[in-house]
């Protein structure tokens, strides 16, 4: 028997799209649950997410939720917040409309990735796989010394961040981005390198703004606790002061 790559909850009201996503994900060894509305998704969550930490009773726990932003009975973003409140380590990937990506993505600071419609099904599978690779903790983590840069401290065992002794709440993707910047010290890291190492992109997507988006999320959270710490080299990349 082949071990499943993970369990994905697909919430998409267009049945044909949901079917294609489910077929592709199952082909790549994911277990898949589908829902067409917020109400259906929350009903599934009642039987899975409350027991996710113990992996007992409530069925197979969800590792990733693939959520359409526009649902017939509610907002996929609000649904994502509710699902993550039940399981903080749940990975969230949003499906958004291509005609207004900047407006939608600006409101998704708590998500781990977004995909614009129309999309390539192979890209969806690759992005879900990459998100789970960086957000799912190993079963047993060895004790590691904290990473430090200035007044920043990253605990690689608990995946927690502190600045000037104060806790900073980051999403898994924000944590992965900050960790890569800290590991590179004062170096300016090119955008293409961040896409490869943080988002696991083998090829840089045309006109991708995902790095800029998550840098803005990090700045908002870190700058609230001290002077600006992330520097931009225009046309090149980002680093830490």
UniProtKB/TrEMBL annotation:
- Record-linked InterPro entries: CheY-like_superfamily, OmpR/PhoB-type_DNA-bd, Sig_transdc_resp-reg_receiver, WalR-like, WH-like_DNA-bd_sf
- What's the short name of a Pfam family annotated to this entry? Response_reg
The alphabetized UniProt keywords are: DNA-binding, Phosphoprotein
Q: Which residues bind DNA?
A: 144-241
* Residues annotated as domain OmpR/PhoB-type: 144-241
The question of whether Phosphoprotein is a record keyword is answered with yes
Q: Which residues form the Response regulatory domain?
A: 7-132
Indicate where the modification 4-aspartylphosphate is found in the sequence: 68
- Gene3D superfamilies according to UniProt: 3.40.50.2300, Winged helix-like DNA-binding domain superfamily/Winged helix DNA-binding domain (1.10.10.10)
Kindly provide the name given to this protein in its UniProt entry. Response regulator transcription factor
């Amino acid at each position: 028997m082949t071990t499943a790559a993970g369990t994905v909850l697909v919430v998409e009201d267009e049945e044909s799209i949901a079917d294609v996503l489910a077929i592709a994900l199952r082909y790549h060894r994911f277990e898949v649950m589908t829902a067409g509305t917020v109400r259906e998704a929350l009903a599934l969550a009642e039987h899975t997410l409350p027991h996710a930490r113990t992996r007992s009773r409530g069925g197979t726990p969800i590792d990733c939720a693939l959520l359409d932003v526009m649902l017939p009975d509610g907002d996929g973003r609000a649904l994502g917040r509710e699902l993550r409140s039940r399981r903080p380590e749940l990975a969230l990937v949003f499906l958004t409309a291509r005609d207004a990506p900047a407006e939608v993505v600006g409101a998704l600071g708590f998500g781990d990735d977004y995909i614009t419609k129309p999309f390539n099904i192979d890209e969806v599978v690759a992005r879900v796989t990459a998100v789970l690779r960086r957000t799912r903790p190993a079963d047993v983590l060895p004790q590691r010394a904290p990473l430090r840069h200035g007044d920043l401290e990253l605990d690689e065992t608990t995946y927690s961040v502190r600045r000037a002794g104060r806790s900073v709440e980051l999403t898994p993707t924000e944590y992965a981005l900050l960790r890569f910047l800290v590991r590179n010290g004062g170096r300016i890291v090119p955008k293409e390198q961040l896409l490869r190492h943080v988002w696991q992109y083998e090829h840089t997507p045309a006109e991708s703004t995902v790095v800029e988006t998550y840098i803005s999320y990090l700045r908002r959270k870190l700058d609230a606790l001290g002077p600006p710490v992330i520097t931009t080299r225009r046309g090149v990349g980002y680093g830490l002061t």
